[in-house]
Amino acid sequence: MFFFHIRISIFGRDENLPDSRPDSPVVLSQDTPAVAVREPIFTGNKIYDVCSSEQLADQQNCYGYVAGVADVMQYDAVNRYRACVPAGTTPAQLREIAIKFLMEHPIELRHYTASALVATALGEAFPCPTN
Q1: Residue 120 burial (CB count, 10 A)
Q2: Rounded Cα–Cα distance for residues 56 and 74 (Å)
Q3: CA distances (Å), 109 to each of 8, 9, 104, 105, in order?
Q4: Could you tell me the domains of the chain?
Q5: Which pTM was predicted?
Q6: How far is CA 100 from CA 76, 97, 106, in A?
Q7: Which residue of 12, 61, 79, 98 is surrounded by the most CB atoms within 10 Å?
Q8: Does residue 70 sit in helix, strand or coil?
Q9: Measuring CA to CA, which residue among 120, 39, 47 is closest to residue 77?
Q10: Mind listing the pLDDT tens digit for each residue in 14-38?
Q11: Angle at 10 (CA atoms; ends 7, 13), nearest 5 degrees
């Protein structure tokens, strides 16, 4: 799953969840505890639009975004994926991998967070060896 909900108590901060804040938006229902829902800053639809654009500025933004996710994934997991990107891989190649993944998952995934989708694409393309 790519979208996460963070639970907070109706009385404020949940001490078991260090990232919860009392000022987060809260959704209440009879069946579930209070849930704070974080909207993605950059969705899969947005990164797809930027990466598939013919505009040079959009392509450069895409290269930076995808390369940034790839850099983080070399040291930390993103969306439970790590990527071992081979030396010499270009931002253009990373962009093509992201576009291909997003094209293959247009309806069911693109509303999720872009970083999680890019991480999934790169993690599948460049899996790290298991020990």
Answers
A1: 22
A2: 27
A3: 26, 29, 9, 6
A4: 1-38 (no CATH), 44-125 (1.10.890)
A5: 0.67
A6: 23, 5, 10
A7: 98
A8: helix
A9: 120
A10: 444 344 444 444 343 334 333 444 6
A11: 60
